[in-house]
Specification:
Elements (H helix, E strand, L loop, with lengths): L1 E6 L2 E6 L2 E2 L2 E2 L3 E6 L2 E3 L7 H8 L6 E3 L5 H4 L2 H8 L2 E4 L4 H4 L7 H6 L9 E2 L3 E3 L4 E6 L8 E5 L4 E5 L16 H14 L5 E4 L4 E2 L2 H24 L4 H9 L5 H4 L6 H9 L3
Parallel strand pairs: 6-7, 7-8, 8-9, 13-14
Antiparallel strand pairs: 1-2, 2-5, 3-4, 5-6, 10-11, 11-12, 12-13, 14-15
Helix pairs in contact: 1-3, 6-7, 8-10
Length: 267
C-alpha cells in the first residue's frame, strides 16, 4: 500500500504492508530533485519501484540500516540502476540478512541484502545541496539530511513524537537528545521535519524542543526515584503506572523499562 503527499518540492511516499485492506504500520520515504531518501520495507518494494519508474530518480540514501528503511534497496538498485548511499557504520548491516523478531518480520519483512556506498558529507542535486549530519541515538550509523536554505531536515527515526513512552534496548536517550540539538543548531529560522513515521512537522523547532523538555523532565524524575532506592522496574510503575502494552506486542523490545534505563544513563 502506497500513498503520496506533496510538500513544496518534496514528495512524501508513505508505505505499509496491507492486511485485510488496511495498513499495518506506515513508514515514509521522500523524493526530492532526483534524490530518494529511504526505501521502505520489503513488503512494499515492488510497489515503490513501480511508482518510481519514469520519475526522475538519480541516487538514494538510507538514513540507517533498519528493515523499514532499506527494504526496497535491492529492487531499486537492480531496476533503476542508481547508486545507493549510507553511513559507513550502516553498510555492513545492509549487506547481510538481519535477524528479526517475529513482530518485525510480520510488519516489515526481511530486506534483501544490498550493496551501498559510503555517503559523502554533502549530497548535491541539480537544485540543492543536502548536508549529511550524523545523528546517533536511535541506531548506529544513523544520519539526517539537511537542506538549510529551505529549512528541510530529513531525520529518519530521530524524532517520532514529542512524548515517547517506550524505546528499544539499543536506543540511547542522551545521544538522541544531543542529535536533536545538533539539528536545531544546523537550522536557520525554519526547521521542517520530514520524519520516517509519516509525519511532516512544519514547526520542527517547537516539536524538538517539546520532546527534549519532556525527556529532560523524565530523566530528572527517574534519577530522583533511583536516588530514593527504587529499582528501574519500580520506577516504570511510578512514572507510567506499569509497563506499556507494546512490550508484549514487540517481544519485549519496545518497553518503558528500556526508556527508564536509558534515562538513568543519560548523564
Amino acid at each position: 500500500m502506497i500513498e503520496t503527499v506533496k510538500f513544496e518540492e518534496v514528495t512524501q511516499i508513505k508505505m505499509s504492508r496491507e492486511i485485510g485492506g488496511k495498513p499495518v504500520y506506515w513508514v515514509a520515504a521522500y523524493l526530492v530533485d532526483g534524490l530518494l531518501i529511504d526505501t521502505g520495507c520489503s513488503y512494499t518494494s515492488k510497489e515503490l519501484v513501480a511508482f518510481l519508474k519514469g520519475r526522475d530518480v538519480r541516487l538514494a540514501v538510507n538514513t540507517h540500516f533498519h528493515e523499514d528503511h532499506v527494504g526496497g534497496n535491492r529492487d531499486i538498485i537492480e531496476t533503476l540502476g542508481i547508486d545507493m548511499y549510507a553511513h559507513p557504520d550502516s553498510i555492513p548491516f545492509i549487506a547481510k540478512k538481519p535477524e528479526l523478531y517475529p513482530y518485525r518480520q510480520m510488519v516489515w519483512g526481511y530486506p534483501e541484502p544490498s550493496s551501498v556506498r559510503p555517503v559523502p558529507d554533502v549530497i548535491r542535486t541539480d537544485r540543492h545541496a543536502f548536508r549529511v549530519i550524523e545523528t546517533p541515538g536511535h541506531s548506529a550509523g544513523h544520519i539526517a539530511l539537511a537542506e538549510p536554505s529551505k529549512g528541510w531536515f530529513f531525520t529518519g527515526d530521530l524524532f517520532a513524537r514529542e512524548n515517547p513512552k517506550f524505546i528499544r534496548p539499543e536506543e540511547h536517550i542522551g545521544k538522541t537528545m544531543a542529535s536533536m540539538r545538533t539539528i536545531m543548531e544546523a537550522a536557520g529560522g525554519r526547521l521542517v521535519l520530514f520524519t520516517s513515521v509519516g509525519k511532516i512537522v512544519e514547526d520542527g523547532r517547537a516539536a524538538l524542543t517539546a520532546c527534549m523538555e519532556y525527556l529532560s523532565g523524565l530523566a530528572l524524575t527517574a534519577k530522583k526515584l533511583s536516588g530514593e532506592g527504587l529499582a528501574p522496574e519500580e520506577i516504570v510503575k511510578g512514572m507510567f503506572g506499569g509497563e506499556h502494552n507494546f512490550a508484549e506486542i514487540t517481544n519485549g523490545q519496545y518497553t518503558s523499562l528500556n526508556l527508564v534505563r536509558s534515562l538513568l544513563d543519560s548523564g
